[in-house]
């Protein structure tokens, strides 16, 4: 598995297993199967409401904790100094681990500065190894870095063939921020898994459309999170290190760009209100 360096002592596996929208009753087994398939990077969040089951899966896998990279995210209601400190303790308890490899501020709302100071302190204490943000523009990332002790080390954003974020990725990587992609398959929107351009590329290498997309992201040095509860699909998604895309392949993928989110804008006032009003008591 290829790793990307976050800092001198922290490396993140470039392929992660995401558990967003996996039901609680299926999460433990999904994590066990993902680890069995070769994943060592598990990505969850307070708002996914399955941290406990992720922790159970980690324990049941029998894999040494030090061999795993675990990410969680602070939900909006906890994005302030005091509640970030308290909620990370709760996340550690639910995950049943002594430290978290990466903690992200899930959305760029509420008291991001206060929350960031709390994450810096938790990192200093060894409860967290790396800290970052999610769904932030380059302006917010640089602003946080300039006005605090630690610059965000990771930014997890939507990236897929229809929303490629070339300019944003380049700007973040220029600032030495590791970029992670959520929804790499756009949740199947635009009939993604029957896309003729991606299928044509995949046929050249005897690879699936999903494998082409994952390979395309990895070759951009983007950490990518894939989700499946199907063990065969898990194994297929991780089997992307035996081929390379050509410049022509990448140019074809570039033609799929639609230059807009496949879900919603994080700058939409109504969406900000809706997300901020989602109280989860996590």
UniProtKB/TrEMBL annotation:
Report the source organism.
Answer: Staphylococcus edaphicus
Pfam family membership, one: Aldo_ket_red
Keyword Hydrolase belongs to the record? no
Task: Show which residues form the site (Lowers pKa of active site Tyr).
Answer: 73
Is-annotated flag, keyword Nucleotide-binding? no
Q: Which residues participate directly in catalysis? A: 48 (proton donor)
* GO MF entry, a single one: oxidoreductase activity, acting on the CH-OH group of donors, NAD or NADP as acceptor
Indicate which residues the UniProt annotation says bind substrate. 106
Family, per entry: Belongs to the aldo/keto reductase family.
Keyword terms, alphabetized: NADP, Oxidoreductase
The family database entries (PANTHER family) matched by this protein are listed as: 2,5-DIKETO-D-GLUCONIC ACID REDUCTASE (PTHR43827), NADP-DEPENDENT OXIDOREDUCTASE DOMAIN-CONTAINING PROTEIN (PTHR43827:SF3)
Show where the NADP-dependent oxidoreductase domain sits: 21-256
Question: What Gene3D superfamilies does the annotation carry?
Answer: NADP-dependent oxidoreductase domain
Its protein name is: 2,5-diketo-D-gluconic acid reductase
């Amino acid at each position: 598995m290829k790793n990307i360096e976050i800092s001198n002592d922290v490396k993140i596996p470039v392929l992660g297993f995401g558990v967003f929208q996996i039901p609680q009753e299926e999460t433990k087994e999904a994590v066990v199967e993902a680890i069995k398939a070769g994943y060592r990077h598990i990505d969850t969040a307070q708002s996914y409401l399955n941290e406990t089951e992720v922790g159970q899966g980690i324990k049941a896998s029998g894999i040494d904790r030090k061999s795993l990279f675990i990410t969680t995210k602070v939900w909006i209601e906890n994005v302030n100094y005091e509640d970030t400190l308290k909620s990370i303790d709760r996340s550690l308890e639910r995950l049943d681990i002594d430290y978290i490899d990466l903690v992200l501020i899930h959305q760029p709302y509420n008291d991001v500065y206060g929350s960031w100071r709390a994450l810096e302190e938790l990192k200093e204490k060894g409860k967290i190894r790396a800290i970052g943000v999610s769904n932030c523009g380059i302006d917010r990332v640089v602003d946080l870095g300039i006005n605090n002790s630690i610059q965000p080390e990771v930014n997890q954003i939507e990236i897929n063939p229809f929303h490629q974020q070339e300019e944003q990725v380049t700007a973040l990587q220029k600032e030495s921020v590791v970029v992670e992609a959520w929804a790499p398959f756009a949740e199947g929107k635009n009939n993604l898994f029957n896309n003729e351009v991606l299928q044509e590329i995949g046929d050249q290498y005897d690879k699936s459309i999903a494998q082409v997309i994952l390979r395309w992201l990895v070759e951009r040095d983007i950490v990518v999170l894939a989700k499946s509860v199907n063990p065969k699909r898990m194994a297929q998604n991780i089997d992307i290190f035996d081929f390379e895309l050509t410049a022509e392949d990448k140019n074809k993928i570039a033609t799929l760009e639609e230059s807009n989110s496949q879900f919603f804008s994080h700058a939409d006032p109504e969406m900000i209100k809706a997300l901020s009003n989602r109280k989860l008591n996590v």
